[in-house]
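Usage

Read records sequentially. Each one opens with the input sequence:
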Amino acid sequence: VQLVESGGGLVQPGGSLRLSCAASGFTFSRYVMRWYRQATGKERELVAAITSAGGSTNYADSVKGRFTISRDDAKNTIYLQMNSLKPEDTAVYYCNAHRGWPYFYDYWGQGTQVTVSS
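and closes with the structure output:
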């Protein structure tokens, strides 16, 4: 199983980035896919989630209206479009694949750093 994030980097406040997470080694379409982030000294937090088949999405209040999660099951890839970035969005962003009852599988990527600074 592999989840490989890409697209992080340094961006100025108000700018945009698009993160990608390429998955392999499991049946991608059956998994809820999520983006988490962890800032230095803080706990990891859920940023956005998208259900299998992309029927539903959820966002943390802090990113609603600015971030968009999407998935392409043909490419086994999810995306996080991040607009109007703020310094408080600075964190390591992690991709997660989750399959619930009765399986309870969770897979994680290695993370990609996003830094929002002038």
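Summary fields computed downstream for this record:
- The first strand starts at residue 2 and ends at 6.
- Residues 32 and 51 are 4 Å apart (CA to CA).
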